[in-house]
Design goal:
alpha/beta, seven-stranded mixed beta sheet, 26% helix, disordered N terminus
Length: 468
């Protein structure tokens, strides 16, 4: 039996979701890095475009990316493309025949879908598009319900919903390979989660953070501000062992008032472990503990493959650490020792950031990643406000808008060297340190912005017109 012809000239097309635009490129790059592959875009690559052409990859690479990505919707083996249908035809007819034939023979079944971005075509127009592609040598049988092969014609009408052109800006045709993991956003929604809190992380963002951190099977992941464990849920889904800590005793032990609208107190089995049990990943749960992030209890060795966290900003959760402004404090004793709650004091955001970076530099394995959220006041933000560390390289910095005047940046850093004696104090001599000390007033600026907005609203009459 003759060996099958070698398939060459392969190029792949990703169709990406049009939300969290800044998060898409770091996610795809990180997932390709797990395969040891670079991100090699085709010509005329536009980051904000919903379609990306990628080179120098295999179908296995694409399948592995799509098995994890929540930013990508679908992936295709690209057979042809062009700015109009005439050039699409030329491109398709020049595509190597040996690449097409395995999917077009008479014993195969197939279906052709038509997808339009930013425009809706009626059924008749879609059929016309399909009939116009009769120049392709399909010999198989059409099967709309369960075909062996699915092909897709994709038309891009730009990203402006208020200015939709009559003809597409660009057209692609290819063989469908795999869908992304957008379904995880729905299946892991915090609305249906067993244990939630005021600051439980959105499911989609949790999976994006895990992907930015390159979390993989058998990794050990730590969250120093674990809260209700949303990030542990996402990391455990990808096969990582997870653990965390938090200074809030009630949250760690699942006690106190519930965050649910119709429930006063938390139930007896509302805890982080129950969340992992809900999604079938309880075996990946190591443990969580009550601990002060400013005083790490871990031994000073590289333990974790990733540190992923959402530090408190002082908005819905206070920024506290154990300690007192008094020179001496009397420890609890006797029958009160076990239930004693340590005295706490303010833990400024700049201190949280410095401690977190130092912790990661010491406890991450080489090549391990730190992924965290940095809240910023947008009118004053500049890149110099992102804290650096000599042992950590900045990989990506993505913005999520919170309001007209505030946002938070998803920061990804990678450990590139082992810490030396003075590295822990490097931030004090770094000129950026004074800039990110400004984060300490984020809470005041946040509420100041709200008050200004409310003040403007109160100065308008019922028709929305300014009162003079």
């Amino acid at each position: 039996m003759a060996a099958p012809a070698r398939r060459s000239w392969l190029q792949y097309l990703l169709h990406l979701a049009q939300d969290n635009l800044e998060f898409r490129l770091p996610e795809i790059k990180a997932l390709l890095a797990l395969r040891g592959k670079p991100f090699s875009p085709g010509l005329n690559f536009k980051e904000k475009c919903p379609f990306w052409c990628l080179d120098d990859l295999t179908e296995d690479d694409i399948c592995c990316v799509m098995a994890r990505s929540v930013c990508a919707k679908s992936a295709f083996e690209l057979w042809g493309h062009g700015p109009n249908h005439s050039e699409l035809r030329t491109s398709l007819l020049s595509y190597p025949e040996q690449n097409m034939l395995p999917f077009l023979h008479k014993d195969s079944t197939y279906r052709i879908n038509v997808y339009t971005f930013n425009k809706t075509l009626d059924f008749t127009e879609r059929i016309k598009r399909i009939d116009a592609m009769d120049y392709l040598p399909f010999q198989g049988v059409v099967n709309l319900k369960n075909p062996q092969h699915i092909f897709c014609l994709l038309e891009d009408y730009g990203t402006d919903p208020n200015n939709i052109p009559e003809h597409p800006d660009y057209i692609y045709f290819g063989r469908w390979i795999a869908d992304g993991q957008r379904e995880l956003i729905r299946s892991h929604s915090v609305k249906n989660r067993h244990f939630i809190g005021n600051t439980s992380m959105d499911a989609g963002l949790s999976f994006i953070m895990a992907n930015h951190a390159k979390v993989k099977k058998h990794d050990l992941v730590f969250d120093p501000f674990v809260g209700t464990g949303s990030l542990l849920v996402a990391c455990s889904h990808f096969g990582a062992y997870v653990c965390g800590s938090d200074i809030d005793y009630n949250t760690i032990h699942g006690k106190g008032r519930s965050s649910r609208k119709d429930q006063t107190w938390r139930g007896p089995d509302e805890n982080i472990r129950a969340n992992l049990r809900q999604y079938g990943t309880e075996k990946m749960y190591v443990d969580v503990m009550v601990s002060d992030a400013s005083k790490p209890v871990w031994r000073d060795v590289a333990l974790f493959d990733a540190v992923i966290t959402d530090p408190p900003y002082g908005i819905r959760e206070s920024t506290r650490r154990t300690g007192s402004q008094k020179e001496t404090t009397k420890p609890a004793d006797g029958i009160y020792a076990e239930s004693h709650v340590a005295v706490s004091q303010s833990y400024h955001l700049s201190e949280i950031l410095a401690d977190m970076l130092n912790f990661s530099a010491h406890r991450l394995v080489m090549g391990g990643r730190l992924v965290y959220w940095l809240p910023v006041y947008r009118p004053e933000y500049c890149e110099e406000m992102v804290p650096l560390h000599p042992c950590l390289r900045l990989i990506s910095n993505c913005e999520q808008m919170l309001s007209s005047h505030t946002s938070r940046r998803l920061i990804t850093m990678e450990k590139v060297k082992e810490p030396e004696e003075l590295d822990g104090l490097a931030h004090l001599s770094d000129p950026r340190f004074s800039a990110y000390q400004g984060h300490n007033t984020f809470r005041e600026k946040y509420f100041s912005g709200l008050n200004k907005r409310h003040s403007k609203e109160n100065k308008s009459d019922s028709n929305g017109d300014p009162i003079i």
